[in-house]
């Protein structure tokens, strides 16, 4: 038990999916898991454990942003023994080659967050995905005929930049594919505690072309992404 999580040790599986939204965690558990059991509801930041294709798996909402995710992930690793953490989320697009609905597998995560920057002094640490999870997700996406891109994600602490796209400076020019708000902290914690992590995002709104996903596409895409993430999560 922690101030943010009332689950008991043993209540989570070693593989945990991390959507930002608590209601998406509920939807994932109810739609995909067999024998789903609610294990956490503190602050309505819902967590569930069940099975997927007979293998134990959990889902825990991370909330929005790196400070919130870092609390849940720190505790999942250090109190509950999580070993494989896969964020499933949405992101904005920063590159016109990434189309709405495409998946971005965040191979690396650049960030403006002091959560990451504050720890490395003069150095710019490069938060990266676990290679095995990344390779598995890419192979499975390819086999399923899903459109995906593996590359650099921006994990920003700011959703509403005062100066719009200029807030992202040179990042798109250096191949950064999309922007979300959690991956860099996830990868940094995973590196610190020696566990595996990956972020998979559906691109829902392109900041360059202004294309946006519609409600029906959103649901189908989320379904495909979650099934992919579950297959990767239970494999290890
Ligand atoms: N910025 C940050 N996070 C996001 C965005 C965005 O434009 N779209 C979806 N998640």
Are any ligands bound, and if so which?
A: hypoxanthine
- Class by SSE composition: alpha/beta
The number of helical segments is 6
Radius of gyration, rounded?
17 Å
| Average pLDDT figure | 96
Sequence of strands across the biggest β-sheet:
5-8-7-6-9
Secondary-structure element pattern, one letter each:
EHEEEHEEHHEEHEH
Range of helix content: 25-40%
Q: Regarding quaternary structure, how should these chains be classified?
A: single chain
How large a portion of the residues is in β-strands, by DSSP E? 25-35%
- CA distance, first residue to last residue: 26 Å
Count the beta strands.
Answer: 9
Offer a few descriptive terms:
5-stranded mixed barrel; binds hypoxanthine; 236 residues; alpha/beta; 9 strands; 6 helices; single chain; 31% helix
Summarize the model shown.
With 236 residues, the chain is an alpha/beta fold. It has helices at 22-32, 66-78, 114-117, 131-143, 183-193, 215-235, and strands at residues 15-18, 34-40, 47-52, 55-60, 84-93, 103-111, 148-155, 178-180, 196-206. 50% of the residues are buried.
Question: What does this protein structure show overall?
Answer:
By secondary structure, the protein is α/β, with parallel strands linked by helices. It is 31% helix and 27% strand. It is built from 6 helices and 9 strands. The protein has helices at 22-32, 66-78, 114-117, 131-143, 183-193, 215-235, and strands at residues 15-18, 34-40, 47-52, 55-60, 84-93, 103-111, 148-155, 178-180, 196-206. The chain has a 5-stranded mixed barrel with strand order 5-8-7-6-9. Helix 2 packs parallel to helix 5 (183-193) and helix 4 crosses helix 6 (215-235). The radius of gyration is 17 Å and the shape is globular.
């Amino acid at each position: 038990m922690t101030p943010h999580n009332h689950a008991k040790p043993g209540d989570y599986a070693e593989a945990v999916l991390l959507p930002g939204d608590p209601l998406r965690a509920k939807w994932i558990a109810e739609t995909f898991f067999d024998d789903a059991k609610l294990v956490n509801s503190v602050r309505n930041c819902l967590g569930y454990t069940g099975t997927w294709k007979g293998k134990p798996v959990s889902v825990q909402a991370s909330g929005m942003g790196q400070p919130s995710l870092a609390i849940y992930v720190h505790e999942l690793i250090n109190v509950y023994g999580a070993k494989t953490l896969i964020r499933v989320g949405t992101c904005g697009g920063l590159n016109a080659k990434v189309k709405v609905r495409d998946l971005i597998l965040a191979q690396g995560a650049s960030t403006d967050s002091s959560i990451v920057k504050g720890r490395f002094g003069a150095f710019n640490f490069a938060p990266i995905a676990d290679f095995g999870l990344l390779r598995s997700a890419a192979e499975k996406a390819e086999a399923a005929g899903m459109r995906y891109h593996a590359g650099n994600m921006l994990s920003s602490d700011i959703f509403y930049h005062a100066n719009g796209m200029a807030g992202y400076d040179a990042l798109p020019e250096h191949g950064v594919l999309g922007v979300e708000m959690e991956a860099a902290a996830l990868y940094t914690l995973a590196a610190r505690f020696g566990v595996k992590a990956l972020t998979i995002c559906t691109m829902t709104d392109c900041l360059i072309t202004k294309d946006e996903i519609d409600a029906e596409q959103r649901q189908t895409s989320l379904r495909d992404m979650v099934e992919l993430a579950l297959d990767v999560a239970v494999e290890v």
